[in-house]
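Hi all, long-time lurker, first post. I run a small reading group and we've been trying to get comfortable going from sequence to structure in the token notation. Rather than ask abstract questions, I figured I'd post a concrete chain and ask someone more experienced to write out its structure so we can walk through it together at our next meeting. Sequence below, copied exactly:
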Amino acid sequence: MSIGNSPPEDRPSVGQAIQKARIDAQLTVDEVSATTRVRVPIVHAIEQDDFSRCGGDVYARGHVRTLAKAVGLDPDELVAQYDAEHGGRPAPTPAAALFEAERIRPEPSRPNWTAAMVAAIVAVVGFVGFTLFSGGDEQARTPVAQDGPSPDPAGEPDPAKPAEPDPDPSVSESAIAAAPADKVTVKLVAEDGKSWFSAEAHNGRLLEEGVLQDGDSRTFTDDKRIDLVLGNAGAVTLFVNGKEVDKVGEVGQVQRVSYTKGDPEQG
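-- Answer (accepted) --
Happy to help. Here is the structure in token form:
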């Protein structure tokens, strides 16, 4: 016999799912807290399915979504499970209230067909009179067609239309092939398992974070520097500015590395 909105026995709870995914990604609570900015006590509480420290359903749903992304889970699916278990989503509007609102809506007024017919007759009479009056001068006012083809406006650029922006160069699988000298280009390839990763630009802007599955790759570029955190460094091969970097770390080892422009082995 289940009590309240407890999850089915064959499915882990929201907190259990987050904790298991974090352990599978070889991340500590401190590392998850540092990347998500969710305080350590709240991460511990959520993994124990205690959402009382979140400050309400709205904040709890936000924390669940953020932690799910950090450990490689589907955030929409986990938030939906939270709603089912804890009633986070507001109740739908009762059908009776909608029926009452529909019933008291005033009926639209019927069109006045008599006035419409009179206006149409006046318009027709006025148009016929104007045509008869101005028909004699129609030939004189007709413009003479110019010789040669008329210019095609389709080929002219529209100055009012803004130019389409170039695609965002921050993440590009082909950037590693060019490896421009005035930028730093880093490519991550998971070859011996999966690894959690985080990539930031030189100004602290988060480029991407998540779990890099075995066989997947990511490429990042920046004008000055790229900072990386690898949760399983031994499973990741790095290419920096077009050159493969020697072994970054061991399997299961968390590594923090930074790369700038030029030869990575000389930096």
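A couple of things your group might point at:
Residues 113-134 form the longest helix (22 residues).
Residues 93-104, 142-155, 165-175 have pLDDT under 50 and may be disordered.
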